[in-house]
Protein 1
Amino acid sequence: MKEMTSQLESKNVKPSIARIKVLEYLTQYPTHPTVDEIYHHLADEIPTLSKTTVYNSLKVFKEIDLVREINLGEHQNRYDVDVSEHGHFKCDHCGRIIDLSINLQNVDAKELEGCRIDHRHVYFRGFCPLCSASKQ
Amino acid sequence: MKEMTSQLESKNVKPSIARIKVLEYLTQYPTHPTVDEIYHHLADEIPTLSKTTVYNSLKVFKEIDLVREINLGEHQNRYDVDVSEHGHFKCDHCGRIIDLSINLQNVDAKELEGCRIDHRHVYFRGFCPLCSASKQ
DNA sequence: ATATTTGCAAATAATTTGCAGTCGA
DNA sequence: TCGACTGCAAATTATTTGCAAATAT
């Protein structure tokens, strides 16, 4: 909580309750939640919270590079407090998302010569060990 | 045109005019178009075409692995007749999409042990050589 | 007091669905 | 003729926006 506050203050973003709680949620549950998941979890604690505020907070966090918006080929975005370069694997059976320690710096293609690369995204989809064992 | 027909027939999909034209468009203009782009280009030629039919055709093509749905962190999907494993780079200035010859088989992470991987997606975003030269 | 944040409701946009009409073997 | 294909309109879903009320320093 205190850490969230100082993280926000260090980026010159006012640590409002909503922002602290959203950031805290992302930190405590780094499961790459969707806006809906964040909203519903926090709604109990903050009954006045609106989804718009969750969107607003995440927008600010993205701008100051505190969270990363990720997109696993679904219709909705997910959010990750781990802004370091890594990939994701999504299990299409149980929905679990696994972080992949992929060094994207190595993933270079000749076609990228002269390009300024701002973001690198890697995600795989399939069945996680548990789900592929259960033969689904 | 004839090739499109036989491609479809070999997969037991009826080669209707709409399907042939959509597939032909994707083949002739492998620019990773969106549904909207496909629809508007073909609407001149086939005035009765509806966007639903474009969606329907693409859905069938995906199922028979004739096209690949790609998603570059935008709000809409794109479609690629090149179903071989490769990555993409999108220029955030001019919108151009460059195919990347990345061997994703190499991109392995220890966390993937035991996973059944069905799809591998890699995309980068930034500025292409032309746009980064113009210092935008 | 004043600027920022919040939250409702409406707008936007991509995609999906229901269903009736049409087309082709 | 019959089943598959098409296409309109409506539904669904995620996200954004306008603006007024609430809040904080």
Protein 2
Amino acid sequence: MPKINTNFNNRTVEYEQLLSDFKLLLKKNNLKFTIQREVILETLYNSDEHLTPEALHHLIQKKEPDLKTGIATVYRTLALLEESDVVTSLSFGAQGKKYELGAKEHHDHLICTECGKITEFVDEEIEKRQHVITDELGFAMSDHSMQIYGICAACQKKLKIEGK
Amino acid sequence: MPKINTNFNNRTVEYEQLLSDFKLLLKKNNLKFTIQREVILETLYNSDEHLTPEALHHLIQKKEPDLKTGIATVYRTLALLEESDVVTSLSFGAQGKKYELGAKEHHDHLICTECGKITEFVDEEIEKRQHVITDELGFAMSDHSMQIYGICAACQKKLKIEGK
DNA sequence: GTCGCTGCAAAGTCTTTGCAGAGAG
DNA sequence: CTCTCTGCAAAGACTTTGCAGCGAC
């Protein structure tokens, strides 16, 4: 498959915008706009979570049971979307890949190991340092992910009260 | 029995220390100290790279061909070591996990999505900012991990030559 | 001797691929 | 109409598991 041309960037975009960009992308590469591809994009857009291919497939089956979308199509579309930088895949530790729309704003994660709550944050200083580091090594950064694990303020309080 | 490695390097834990900790861990859990487990630990210790289970298995077969260590044992031992926080696993892009000794100094990772090579780095600025962020939010940080994805200098060169 | 460990092979997972018919352009 | 896409099922890649004999303690 030829290298995909893309017009996407990292700004937060509305769905309509995303969709028309996607159609343009397809047209440019002589690919077809199918119901399946639209449903996959829409489901990704409407999810706030990082989805595994399987989770995405489940959501789609629930939303559009008549389509009988195959898991193979989900994988193929995710590969296409990833190559076009529409979605980003992340491996969060344990198993499998998870996908999220790359068009959403970048953020890092604070993860409470007590209650599982995930807080998003962005720190300009850190972002800057990352560029300094990669520039120094001639590394072309495409993405990064950072997770800080610990116990959130609420849980610390709770644990204190419980005398643990 | 494999020889103890006495090379001078900058690891925070010497092999003998690691080995005796490992033996203690096994004893505590009523597990047995076997040649296979020792060879796996030693091979991990002597490798400067992040190893896939398969790569580790290959190294072991080359080093101790008479043992005929099975890949299943490698997987089982890695799972044991990971659960005991002796090794850490990293998942990078495409497929499979890679393992490294967790007893080394803390560091973050630069991951080349082209060749899979992992480069370690530590940046004091970033470490400091993490503390500032968590302190501000009253979050008790216990650990963190950061991965920067992109294309390493060597692969950029290679891709350029291939005209991609 | 006991009971956990090991190698082997078989069974699971997860992901990709080949194919013939369906469908977008 | 043409040529890409799709679902299905089969194949691959990677990892785990069942089992019978082996070996640490």
